Amino acid sequence: MAMHIQGAGLPTGRMLLIEGDAAQARLMATALVQSLAQAPAIVRAGGGRQAAEMLRAESFDIILADLASLADFSTSTDEAVARLVRLADGALVVAISDGASVSAAVSAMRAGAHDYVAKPLNGLALANRIGELAERHGKARTLGLEACPPRNIADFAGFIGSSSAMQFVYEQIGRVATSSAPVFITGESGTGKDVCAEALHAKGPRAGKRLVAINCAAIPRDLMESELFGVARGAFTGAHEDRKGAAELADGGTLFLDEVGEMDLSLQSKLLRFLQTGTLSRVGEAGVRKVDVRVICATNRNPMQLISEKKFREDLFYRLHVLPIHLPPLRQRPSDVMQLAQHFLERYASEEHKRFAGFSAEAAAALTAADWPGNVRQLQNLIRRLVVMFDGGEIGRDMLTAADIESRTAAPSEPTPRLERRAGVLPMWQQEQRIIEDAIASFGGNISLAAAALEISPSTIYRKRQSWAELAAAS
Fold first, then answer.
1. What pLDDT, in 10s, does the model give residues 207-231?
2. How far apart (Å, rounded) are the C-alpha atoms in residues 272 and 268?
3. Predicted model pTM
4. Are strands 211-215 and 254-258 parallel, antiparallel or unpaired?
5. Residues 123 and 220 both lie in one domain
């Protein structure tokens, strides 16, 4: 039966959605037409047998098949998909699997499916996947995606970038922003952990309230408790009046603990009690105060290593590590480099009242190929320096070289292995890291699917990620 759900434009092409749950099918179809500027006409089949009848009578451009809904078509998922592909007559077949059914999804690909996605589905992510698949197989024009492609987010709540790795981050933020559970953000310095915290707050139900940030690494140890929980008048010399701490100031809103891994162990126990009870006591005060805050924390350190070194409480980690978000380093999303560079160029050129004609092809290639150990912050500083140093025009490779102070100052002190690395030879662990992280990015951040494709276990990836962080810290 046709679902008669239509986007902004006239339906172009035909899509068959095989989904046994009618309510789920309608939600999926609605999400698709909201994410596609010009959606195909969507027809639903309740199972494999009904889909087979429709495919014999009609033609479709793309088929979305929930693997569980194909049970009436064959006792074997592989055989059901293979039969579906034969009947599809050239249509693109996308398998939809339960997030835990990694092996079933991989088997579907081996049986002939062109792609697969895992539940729970995000309309925008699914639309992007369909758009990429249609482009790859020359069906973008047929499906109306050539003139009206899926909306690919390049600017999301302060983030810039449209790579698959960042699309997954945006999807995570959208999902967890509405929750009140703690969020644990990890990522190297300069990847945008503070931007992520601001996005989570802005897109959640507490957006109208305050976001209070406190940098656990920047405040002296003996002042940290009073900064976090406040101080009562007379608690110590100089405490002439009651003062609220960050947690109390954030009441009703969000408390962001940046670099939480640097917090002193004695204060970690008090933070744990605060998270468990929702109450705090100001320094020098006997009573307790009830506050309602959503806690977001971030660190550029490996938390498991901190725990093993007895620098971070394990019980506090598991209290905070409820909804994890990992921000990828810039070197793992090179397709975003020029979007970021152009954004910073326009921003700083406007501030400095200068006009630039963008980047030459040689300069763009150099920026994209760079390692960016300082991540987005390093790129931002470089572009700002370029704008200040030069009067305008097209940015060429010679201008980049002149402005890239970090590389020039670092080069003389770098050992020979590092110089060889610049020539294109990376240590084995870094090459392995790139292969695995690229696989994770290609599966939208899903470690289970990436592990299945690489024919290793997900636990292997988690262990390797921990060892990479240790190697990076040691180098």
1. 989 999 999 999 988 889 889 998 8
2. 6
3. 0.59
4. parallel
5. no
